[in-house]
């Protein structure tokens, strides 16, 4: 028995070390891309560039947080980019025109009301996705692909494809503070970063401290087993898609207020960055595993990678190729990690 124990031990530390390295891959990737661009990209370490990157990271992170919950349940949400465009147009329309009641009457809204209505639109799009998936049993890929087109078409119809410009708001109606959501600062930090901190805290609390969080992981880990153990799988899926829609609405509001304009094409391909950040952050495409904090680090990697490539003058076409390779690499590494974890678990059971 002593000999058997001694021969079993040498392989275990190396495997555990490799597993730890795979689990920390997001942090390693962040250190690598930061170091490379700090050396090679001019002005990368400047304060202005740090602020710019933080804003880009925030936009990716909002969507990636919602996408993380969706992917953990074993789903996917391809509609978030189009929802960004739709909700941005809704916010722009409400700022400029309010709601026309006819006969010269209209309802005007203050900034808080505009934000709440726009968020409700995003949640509604997520609700539609959830209903299609849970009640009509449409595959998540197909359901959200359909709403991708519907939301983008609705955004185009709202203005005939034109931009809603000059979203400065009105002091008379209490909407003059609308531009501050995306362009304002508090204590020298952009407002969108404060919003991201609050959203991240809520998402982490839900995932770690609530029965809903446990239901999300259980649904993705083993949907049938979760249902048999009393988890309301349909309600859980409905929540994650509605939450993803809410995150998209926040991004739509932030971009419209930051640019003081809303365009129906806003948000194109945003879903790709969200998926990349979530997967790079350790969220398994097979479902059942993922961390919000890891997703935030993944969003930093994607944001730094995008801005660094731009600063180095890399073609936008090559940027798409590189992002695609990052997603593929993240999925492959995730599969390695799962296989290695299973192998170590079997080894430990055997001894």
UniProtKB/TrEMBL annotation:
Topology within the bilayer: Multi-pass membrane protein
TM spans (from-to): 24-45, 57-76, 82-99, 111-132, 138-159, 180-206, 238-256, 292-310
Subcellular location as annotated: Cell membrane
GO cellular component: plasma membrane
InterPro entries reported in the protein's UniProt record: ABC_transp_permease
Signal peptide positions on this chain: none
One Pfam short name: BPD_transp_2
Molecular-function annotations in GO: transmembrane transporter activity
Main location (coarse class): membrane
Keywords carried by this UniProt record: Cell inner membrane, Cell membrane, Membrane, Transmembrane, Transmembrane helix, Transport
Protein name in the entry: Erythritol ABC transporter membrane protein
UniProt source species: Poseidonocella sedimentorum
């Amino acid at each position: 028995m002593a000999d058997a124990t001694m021969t079993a031990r040498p392989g275990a530390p190396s495997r555990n070390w490799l597993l730890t390295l795979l689990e920390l891959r997001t942090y390693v990737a962040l250190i690598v891309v930061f170091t490379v661009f700090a050396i090679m990209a001019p002005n990368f370490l400047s304060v202005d560039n740090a602020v710019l990157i933080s804003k880009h990271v925030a936009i990716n992170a909002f969507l990636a947080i919602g996408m993380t919950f969706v992917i953990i349940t074993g789903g996917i949400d391809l509609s978030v980019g189009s929802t960004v465009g739709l909700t941005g147009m809704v916010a722009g329309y409400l700022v400029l025109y309010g709601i026309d009641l006819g006969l010269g009457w209209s309802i005007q809204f203050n900034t808080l009301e505009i934000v709440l209505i726009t968020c409700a639109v995003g949640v509604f799009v997520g609700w539609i996705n959830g209903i299609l998936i849970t009640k009509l049993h449409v595959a998540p890929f197909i359901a959200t692909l359909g709403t991708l087109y519907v939301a983008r078409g609705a955004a185009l119809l709202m203005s005939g494809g034109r931009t809603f410009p000059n979203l400065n708001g009105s002091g008379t109606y209490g909407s003059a503070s609308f531009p501050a959501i995306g362009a304002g600062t508090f204590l020298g930090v952009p407002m969108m970063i404060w919003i991201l901190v609050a959203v991240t805290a809520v998402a982490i609390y839900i995932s770690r401290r609530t029965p809903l969080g446990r239901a999300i992981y259980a649904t993705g880990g083993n949907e049938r087993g979760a249902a048999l153990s009393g988890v309301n799988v349909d309600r859980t899926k409905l929540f994650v898609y509605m939450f993803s829609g809410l995150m998209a609405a926040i991004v739509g509001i932030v971009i419209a207020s930051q640019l003081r304009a809303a365009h129906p094409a806003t948000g194109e391909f945003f879903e790709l960055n969200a998926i990349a950040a979530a997967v790079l952050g350790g969220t398994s495409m097979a479902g059942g595993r993922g961390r919000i904090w890891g997703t935030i680090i993944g969003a930093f990697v994607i944001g730094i990678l995008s801005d660094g490539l731009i600063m180095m003058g890399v073609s936008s076409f090559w940027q798409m190729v590189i992002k695609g390779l990052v997603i593929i690499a993240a999925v492959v590494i995730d599969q390695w990690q799962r296989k290695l974890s299973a192998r170590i678990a079997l080894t430990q059971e055997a001894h």
